[in-house]
Write a structure and sequence with these properties.
The protein has seven helices and seven strands. It is α/β, with parallel strands linked by helices. The longest helix has 18 residues. It has a seven-stranded mixed beta sheet with strand order 3-2-1-4-5-7-6. It starts with a strand and ends with a strand. Helix 1 links the parallel strand 1 and strand 2. It has a single domain, classed as Rossmann fold, CATH 3.40.50.150.
């Protein structure tokens, strides 16, 4: 399995699978320039890309997806934030809130806003030659509220030694006890979309 844009974390969930992570940063097993993947056609049984597509300008996304498909033998799994109007608005608000607190952009959020979150129509077009299932999960409004709460928490504890309440806040926001249902249809507050494309 090839994990494109990954940092090797996928192996924790699939310990028995051979999984190679490739990234443009020095966080994967291999580093590449972000263009053509350095593998032959069909080199991997499956290709996974989690939280990468939204960091590419729209004009580059078709080529990126074509490269995922080229090196996959049977399946491509892609996950990205879902681009509903509500989610896009909340991402802009989150970026502004972060700027107010830190005086600078949040790099990931800036790219989300600048490049746009992928929509269902865009994802369908990117995988038009494949048998595709999409599943949606999470709630972008809840995610936004957690983000803002964490921003407030980080400013309120500046200069203090972390205490029990800080630890409890971190655990509460980590979603360790939350279960997610994958829905076949999106709603306006869907947070993420998972694309399962079969050859």
């Amino acid at each position: 399995m090839l994990d494109v844009g990954g940092e090797g974390l996928l192996r924790r969930f699939l310990p028995s699978a051979k999984c190679l992570a490739i990234n443009i940063a020095e966080r994967g097993d291999l580093r590449y320039g972000g263009h053509r993947l350095p593998f032959s056609d069909g080199a991997f049984e499956a290709v996974v890309s989690l939280d990468t597509l939204e960091h590419l300008p729209r004009a580059q996304r078709p080529y990126f997806v074509a490269e995922l498909c080229r090196v996959a033998q049977t399946m491509i799994i892609l996950a990205t934030p879902y681009g509903s109007e509500t989610h896009k608005r909340l991402e802009r608000q989150a970026l502004e809130a972060y700027k107010e607190v830190h005086g600078r952009d949040h790099d990931y959020l800036r790219e989300h806003v600048e490049y746009g979150l992928p929509t269902q129509a865009e994802l369908t077009a990117l995988f038009e030659e494949y048998e595709v299932e999409m599943r949606f999960c999470g709630n972008c409004e809840e995610q936004y509220m957690r983000f803002v709460r964490n921003l407030r928490h980080s400013t309120s504890r500046a200069g203090r030694i972390p205490v029990l309440s800080d630890a409890l806040s971190i655990l509460r926001n980590a979603n360790l006890w939350r279960t997610y249902r994958l829905d076949p249809q999106p709603c306006e507050s869907s947070n993420r979309v998972y694309v399962f494309a079969s050859k």
